[in-house]
Amino acid sequence: MIAIYTIVCLVLALLLIYFWLYQKVSKHIPENYPNAANLQKIDSNKKTLVCFGDSNTHGNVSYNWVNDLRSELDDYWVFNAGVNSDLTYTLLRRISDVIAAKPDLITILIGTNDVNATMNIKMEKRYQQLGRIGKDISPNFEDFKANYQQIIQILKQKTSAKIAVMSLPVMGEDLAHEANLRADKYSEFIKQLASDENLLYLPLREKQKAFLENNPQPLKHTFEETYILLNYSVIWHYIFGKSWDYVTAKHGFQLTPDNLHQNSIAGGMIRDLVKEAILKNK
């Protein structure tokens, strides 16, 4: 009887942990998201920066470079408008939150999940189950381009902000993998769009690829293992208190703990590119 009771308690504890982690990853919103409550706190003596994107901006399953900017940019009020698992489709749903902040500068880092959703039907279904895309939507390059162009047009029409767009971070550290080849294609579009629309272009992908090319090392895991690596990363970080850098090293990578997200080196590259853009455009 005691053994059964112990097993039941263990199962319940594991379910509670799973539910908590699911909420942490899938439902969490940054504390400095531009919602109504936070908009009331804006310091009118500062400029407003809104960082718009997915988990690589959100920073709760990835290094939080936005928090670095909050502590380093004394003359900016910094909002984090990143949400885990978002695609260009979902940025369009949330774009009114960015507009409401009346930003002076907007950074956009989006596309990793748009690419990831095209890699196999299981990933597409996961984004559907999370409610990021409709059941009838199959993400593709043409939709990505149309969505991104619409995001830029809306922001240009409804804000007076400077807009800085970033090429995609590496998707795993095998640069010859199909995921990275697709991310190259998506990033080439972003670069061209920046030129066509007179936007600031931040070459994140170029910077990360150069780092990996200059520091080659054999890989322990493939891109196909991403989902399980992500689960392990979240457990290591939130259950055992390990840093994203620790998880990165454990998984045999240099820039990412799980093929999709950023450690402090990769996140630092994003932070520094944004800071450079601000300094050049004061």
TrEMBL record:
Residue ranges spanning the membrane: these are 5-22
Q: Which UniProt keywords apply?
A: Membrane, Transmembrane, Transmembrane helix
Give one Pfam hit by family name: Lipase_GDSL_2
- In what residue span(s) does the SGNH hydrolase-type esterase domain sit? 51-219
**Protein name, entry field:** Lipolytic protein G-D-S-L family
The record lists the organism as: Emticicia oligotrophica (strain DSM 17448 / CIP 109782 / MTCC 6937 / GPTSA100-15)
Record lineage: Bacteria, Pseudomonadati, Bacteroidota, Cytophagia, Cytophagales
